Amino acid sequence: MAANKFVTVATVQERFNLTNYTPELNLEEAKVTVADVNRPALQLHGFYEHFEPSRIQVIGNVEAAYISKKSDEEKQKASLSFFLMTFHVLFSVEARSLATFC
C-alpha cells in the first residue's frame, strides 16, 4: 500500500466479517497503511528483531496452540511483552485464541 493510501480497520472488519472485542476504539478512525500481515509466533517466543508493528497482527491456531503449551508464568511474560508493543491492528482467528493468553 502506498504511503498515502489506507483502509480503515472498520472496512477490514466488515469485509472479513470480524468481531470487534474493543468497542471503545473507533474503527473508522484507525487506519491500516501496510498491506502485509504478521503471524507473531516468533514474537510470542521473544524475538522482535525486524518486527514490523505497522502490519496487521493475526493470532491464529498455531500461535494459540503454542501459547497454550506454556506455563502460566511463560504465558504472562509472552503476552505482556507482545501486548506492550505498539501495533495498529490485532485479529484473532477465534475469540478463544486470545483467551489462551490469560
Which properties best describe this structure?
single chain; 102 residues; alpha/beta; Udp-n-acetylmuramoylalanyl-d-glutamate--2,6- Diaminopimelate Ligase, Chain: A, domain 1; 3-stranded parallel sheet; two-stranded antiparallel sheet; 5 helices
Describe this structure in words.
The protein has 102 residues and is an alpha/beta fold. The protein has one domain: HprK N-terminal domain-like (Udp-n-acetylmuramoylalanyl-d-glutamate--2,6- Diaminopimelate Ligase, Chain: A, domain 1), CATH 3.40.1390.20. 35% of the residues lie in helices and 14% in strands. It contains 5 helices and 5 strands. The strands form 2 sheets. The protein has a 3-stranded parallel sheet. Strands 1-2 form a two-stranded antiparallel sheet. The chain starts with 6 loop residues before the first strand and ends with a helix. 13% of the residues are buried.
- Average pLDDT score: 82
CATH T-level fold name: Udp-n-acetylmuramoylalanyl-d-glutamate--2,6- Diaminopimelate Ligase, Chain: A, domain 1
Strands across the major sheet, in which order?
3-4-5
Content-based structural category: alpha/beta
Order of helices and strands: EHEEHEHHEH
Helical residues, percent: 25-40%
In the CATH scheme, the class would be Alpha Beta
Strand share of the residues? 5-15%
Number of domains: 1
How would a textbook summarize the main sheet? 3 strands, parallel
Shape: globular
Give the low-pLDDT segments.
Answer: none
CATH superfamily: HprK N-terminal domain-like
The CATH architecture would be 3-Layer(aba) Sandwich
Number of contiguous helices: 5
Q: What is Rg?
A: 14 Å
The count of strands amounts to 5
